[in-house]
Amino acid sequence: MSQVIADARIDDLAVNTIKFLAVDAIEKAKSGHPGLPMGAADYAYVLWTKFLRYNPKDPKWPNRDRFVLSGGHGSMLLYSLLHLAGYDMPYEELQQFRQWGSLTPGHPEFELERGIETTTGPLGQGIANAVGMGMASHRLAAIFNKPGYEVINHWIYVILGDGDMMEGISHEACSLAGHLGLGNIIAIYDDNQICIEGSTCLTYSDDVKQRFESYGWHVQAINGHDRAAAAEALAKAKAETDKPSLIIAHTTIANGAPNKCGTAQAHGEPLGPDETKAAKECAGWPVDKPFYIPDEVKERFAARAKELLGDYESWQSMFGKYKAEFPELAGLWTKMMGKEVPSDLEDQLLANIDCEKPTATRASSGSIIQELAKLVPSLWGGSADLCPSNKTDVKGGGDFSKENPLGKNIHFGVREHGMGSAMNGMAVYGGVIPYGGTFLVFCDYMRPTIRLAALMKQQVVYVFTHDSIFVGEDGPTHEPIEQIASIRLIPNVTVIRPADTAETAIAWSWALNHKNGPTVLALTRQNLSPVNDDPAKAKQLKKGAYVVRDADKIDVVMIATGSEVGTALGAADILAGKGIKARVVSMPSMEIFKSQDKTYQDSVIPPSIKKRVIVEAGIPFGWDKYAGDEGLIIGMDRFGASAPYKVLAEKFGFTPESVAAKTEEYLK
């Protein structure tokens, strides 16, 4: 009995340590969200000291449990736990919360070395990332686990809140998780019934239990401040391996703050000196010792780390034997974890696909994916219910499902936002280069997830087809006008709009070799003829722009992307017949071209030649840099229309004849 009492006392000390490290950091910063860390401290402590498996000395251990704080505004909960658990989260950094150059920004930012599994903050993203992690872990377990060798058998734990539950992305992702039976996901819903504007009853009356049961989740409800109940619920959740689990933890926001607990004030404002003092006095906590960590608490977390070291060493020993017994799988493991790509990928692709036949670049991409499925084992993806249009499927690869985790084709359903976030989860999980397809116009549904992929510098490939007004009959609702320009605005996103099959092959190769950010492949619905007489010339796509046709004396430089490169070449032929000599430049990627040195840029677009014509069937925004003060931009300044694509090309001025006429008039 005395040991139980002693343990309870240390548990109380540990929970209060977690709370008041958060409170003190937020108070010192005069900015932050104390409510979630204080309300979640009890069950979070139980999770981290009794269930979560980790090794702070090897934070990238592949079989570690993942912990995702979806309610990223409660970041000091995570930072406090990481410090106590022994990760590289120095004590001094807790005191620099939200300050310039600190390791403790206002919302968690992906950094595996410090135990931060993903970037969270925009609500709903964390839980949706966790779904992607669950998908990746199920696939890798199916590939690598053998009897007696559980290479992948970890859990994915998530804390999410009312805001996450309200955001539509959580509906998309959690529905998919239930359908796929991702039984290693355990989510704790911190149900404190408070949002920024006040009580959640202002806007929110969902029956969350029924909602998640309808998705196919295992659901429990507990008092989130009852540590024994939390431990029991987590154990039951682990025992349910066929369904993802949700634990609804009823909590009081800012639990322990005598005057501000249960209030909206506690969500996003420091408690203030008086309330901080009152809360510490109520807890019997030293008022005059900010950032206080009792020795007993340090010892408790150190003991847990030591205990977990045994799990880690057992796994390492097992994996050493695994590599000896299954050398081929061990080799595959190395390739997938390293996201390896053949050094001669470009040549293999160009040799094995038909670059001569006029083909829509979406179809070219489809043929390329068949080859990539053989060459790049970590590549894995699908489409948001548009596979027949996006051409993203691997023929004969099978469908990823609860029954077939080895399936190479993911069916995300009509869930673009959820798809994008799940892809981010796959990317940060490791071993997977995710790709996902939809129509370019629907990238608007995915913008937050594209932005986060860019922020985290994750290798994600977006296959965005039907890339212009030449979608045709579907009309302006499905014809992207502003989307290409708007994605180009996102830092660290590379947009590639290839002009033919050969360029599409090189674009895919570039995307698979580009490890530090997402790539958008913008692909056509309509057939395109080759723009080069030799497909190997398309390798110059790696520089972002190159000359596809030159002239001995250049009167005008014509710069185009995608399907409009062929149009510009046709216009150049017409102009040549009138004695006007045009250099035609394919610029599939502004971002790659901008990264080249000035010497190369000037060799493609000579500064001395001021007469330039830009041709792209989208909003002209962003082209001024290359058009210059005297340039002409032929683009779209209105939405499209419903008609056959050749009619649209004629009506909107994207035929060779129209471009040639506008260029001739411009040069007068």
Helix-strand layout with pairing:
Layout: H1 2-29, H2 35-51, E1 66-69, H3 75-85, H4 91-94, H5 125-144, E2 156-161, H6 162-166, H7 168-180, E3 185-191, E4 194-195, E5 198-199, H8 208-215, E6 218-223, H9 227-239, E7 245-250, H10 265-268, H11 273-283, H12 295-325, H13 327-337, H14 345-352, E8 359-360, H15 361-375, E9 379-383, H16 387-390, E10 409-411, H17 416-429, E11 433-439, H18 447-456, E12 461-465, H19 483-488, E13 494-496, H20 501-513, E14 519-522, E15 527-528, E16 546-549, E17 556-560, H21 563-576, E18 582-586, H22 590-594, H23 598-604, E19 612-615, H24 624-627, E20 632-634, H25 645-652, H26 656-667
Parallel strand pairs: 1-2, 2-3, 3-7, 6-7, 9-10, 9-11, 11-12, 12-14, 13-14, 17-18, 17-19, 19-20
Antiparallel strand pairs: 4-5, 8-15, 16-18
Helix pairs in contact: 1-2, 1-3, 1-11, 2-3, 2-9, 5-7, 5-17, 7-17, 12-13, 14-20, 15-20, 17-18, 21-26
Structure description:
- It is built from 26 helices and 20 strands.
- It is α/β, with parallel strands linked by helices.
- The chain folds into 3 domains: 2-309, Rossmann fold, CATH 3.40.50; 345-528, Thiamin diphosphate (ThDP)-binding fold, Pyr/PP domains (Rossmann fold), CATH 3.40.50.970; 544-667, 3-Layer(aba) Sandwich (Rossmann fold).
- Strands 10-9-11-12-14-13 form a 6-stranded parallel beta sheet, with helices on both faces.
- The longest helix is centred in the middle third of the chain and has 31 residues, at 295-325.
- The chain is elongated, with a radius of gyration of 28 Å.
